[in-house]
Write a structure and sequence with these properties.
This protein is about 25% helix and about 25% strand. It has six helices and eleven strands. The strands form two sheets. A seven-stranded antiparallel β-sheet has the order 1-9-6-11-4-3-2. Strands 5-10-7-8 form a four-stranded antiparallel β-sheet, with no helix packed on it. It has one domain: Jelly Rolls (Sandwich), CATH 2.60.120.620. The structure holds fe (ii) ion. The site of fe (ii) ion has 4 residues, from loops.
């Protein structure tokens, strides 16, 4: 395990993803609110009422698998994804002192964009004292969610978009206070796994493509020239 991460219980990684990617993802979080995909917080499970929350959004689903190799490299671990969550905080939104559930053994909290800065505080594993972290879009805090308490004071800006990505160690064990489970019990615990996706196209591709008439577009095939010179004329 990365020695700094092991000592402190967290690791700050600036520009974990490129700023351009963070901007694009941030824009999608607003689109999710507009489209009714993001849901207002219920005041339970860490969902402050002044937040909009996403736990399943197709544009975000590949992020866990895309970022797993990078997490493994930085932390020198063998991680398996569990789930992700995106939350847009509004003025007055907050995050109480807490540790996370067992699915969050090795986690990222990453900023995607904001109207005003807003620090997160996390307990240092070695010193037992809280450390402040102020993120720019694309910056990430890698942390041990199950053991290191973290919180945010009430937000005084207009909006703040954050994404949480969670993994467990492939053969790890969840320690106190969440004893009794091997980490592997939590692999992909909220669904949306690669296997679910494979099942979708495995079961459905024929129905979908016939339904849309794609497989029956013989007219288009007749108009397509396999002659390279002729085909090239279509691209002016
Ligand atoms: Fe948390």
């Amino acid at each position: 395990m990365n020695p700094d991460f092991e000592r402190d219980g967290y690791l700050v990684v600036k520009n974990f993803i490129p700023r351009d990617s963070a901007d694009m993802l941030c824009s999608l979080t607003l689109k999710a609110v507009a489209d009714g995909v993001a849901k207002p917080g219920q005041g339970i499970g860490g969902e402050h009422p002044l937040t909009w929350n996403i736990n399943s959004f197709s544009a975000f689903d590949p992020l866990l698998t895309l970022l797993t190799p990078k997490m493994n490299e930085i932390l020198d671990l063998d991680l398996v994804p569990t789930y992700y969550y995106q939350r847009t905080y509004l003025k007055g939104g907050a995050m109480s002192h807490h540790t996370d559930r067992p699915s969050c053994q090795r986690s990222i909290t990453m900023n995607l964009g904001y109207s005003h800065q807003w620090p997160i505080y996390i307990v240092n594993r070695e010193t037992g004292k809280y450390t402040e972290f102020q993120a720019e879009p694309g910056d990430a805090l890698l942390y041990m969610g199950c053991s290191q308490e973290h919180y945010r004071d009430p937000f005084e800006g207009d909006w703040y978009s954050q994404i949480f990505l969670h993994w467990v160690e492939r053969e790890g064990e969840i320690g106190p206070p969440h004893t009794g489970h091997m980490c592997k019990d939590y692999h992909w615990d909220n669904g949306g796994s690669p296997a679910d996706y494979r099942k979708y196209y495995g079961d459905s591709w024929k129905k979908i493509l016939h339904q849309k008439g794609i497989m029956e577009r013989k007219q288009s095939v007749a108009n397509y020239s396999m002659d390279e010179h002729q085909a090239g004329k279509n691209y002016k």
